Amino acid sequence: MIRALVILLMAVSIEVAWGQTPQSPGGPFDGSTTPASADVERSAAPAKDYKDAVPIREVVMLRSGVAYFQRRANVQGDSRVTLSFDTEDIDDLLKSMVVRDLGRGQIAAVNYDSKTATGRLLQSFAVDLSGNPSLAELLEQLRGVPVDVAAPQSMTGTIVSIRRDQSAMIPVVSSSVGAEKLSIYDTSVHPKHPLRGVRLTNTTDLFLMQGPVTVYDDGVYAGDALLENFSQGGERLISYSMDLDVEVSPEFDTTPQTVVDVQFAKGTLLVTKKQFREQTYLIKNSANPVRCLLIEHPKQTGWELVAPKQPAETTRDSFRFVRAVPAGETDKLHVETQRTVEKRIALSSSSFVITRKS
């Protein structure tokens, strides 16, 4: 069966191997596969090598100065693709490369030449493995180090083969997660434009460790983000690029302190004052689709929220408000906070006069 292979790149020799083993049943195939990292063939037949045979089909220049390249070709059966790149581009390549089999095949491996000498790499480990140390020498290095001993158990998985002086990316999970597209505005990040972002929900049954994320929007590279540790059922908000189609203009206003109460007891005068602070966010959406804008309004010690009465979310450092701004239209959000200040004055005179004006 002939299938379409798509390789998305942002910009060493890279080998991509895959088999035609279909994905397990249980849901429709979405045509997307996380870059895999095991040099394993899915059948006994030798893999056909498509050396430099995946031509560039599309190039997109982004306003951020980044170029997006798409390579596409038809492949058949178990196959391997070899692509050549400059060595200095390998770091960017590994962060942004996505391989997709648009048929029902499965990506099986992404191997690449290591830039680090084997001896230097072995020396960088917590236990120095350079020089082929004996068991006694290894135990000497581990003296005083806590170790865990596990009983033998049966394990299932895929064999991973890495040739000498090569490295590989090993897939951990290839599943769908819940995602909601947002634009995130924070005056401390950028005073004029929000950031494009995604609210992720870990709908898998795995704990996802922190690491870099490359974001593609409608099949085109959109930016990079950093994902923190992500537990099952948890939510994370990530941002990956500047949203130049949305402008936000914040306006501030703070009123003077106003006396709201005066009390006298046991020779002490208690004066209570209140102060109000108002902030208005003027929003302009120049994009075609509706923008869902999440505004992070900073919390300040001693100040409480007056309006709106209930934010969409509350974090340790901010109130979050959500506004859906239609295409080509403007909107505004008015936030009001207040604080109460008390002042105690000890009175030494036996007589005093308090005058109140209505």
Describe the structure.
- The protein has three domains: 2-168, no CATH class; 178-244, no CATH class; 248-346, no CATH class.
- It is mainly beta and 358 residues long.
- The model is unreliable at 10-45 (pLDDT under 50).
- It contains three helices and 22 strands.
- The protein is extended, with a radius of gyration of 30 Å.
What topology emerges from the helices and strands here?
Layout: E1 2-9, E2 13-19, E3 48-51, E4 56-61, E5 67-76, E6 79-84, H1 90-96, E7 98-101, E8 106-113, H2 118-123, H3 135-141, E9 166-168, E10 178-185, E11 195-201, E12 211-217, E13 220-227, E14 235-242, E15 246-254, E16 258-265, E17 268-285, E18 291-298, E19 304-307, E20 313-314, E21 318-325, E22 330-346
Parallel strand pairs: 3-6, 10-18
Antiparallel strand pairs: 1-5, 1-7, 2-6, 2-8, 4-5, 8-9, 10-11, 11-14, 12-13, 15-17, 16-17, 17-22, 18-21, 19-22, 20-21
Give the structure's gist in a few sentences.
The protein has 358 residues and is mainly beta. The protein contains three helices and 22 strands. The strands form five sheets. Strands 14-11-10-18-21-20 form a six-stranded mixed β-sheet, with no helix packed on it. Strands 3-6-2-8-9 form a five-stranded mixed β-sheet, with no helix packed on it. Strands 15, 16, 17, 19 and 22 form a five-stranded antiparallel β-sheet that branches.
What are the salient characteristics of this protein?
6% helix; 358 residues; single chain; mainly beta; 5-stranded mixed beta sheet; 6-stranded mixed beta sheet; 3 domains; extended
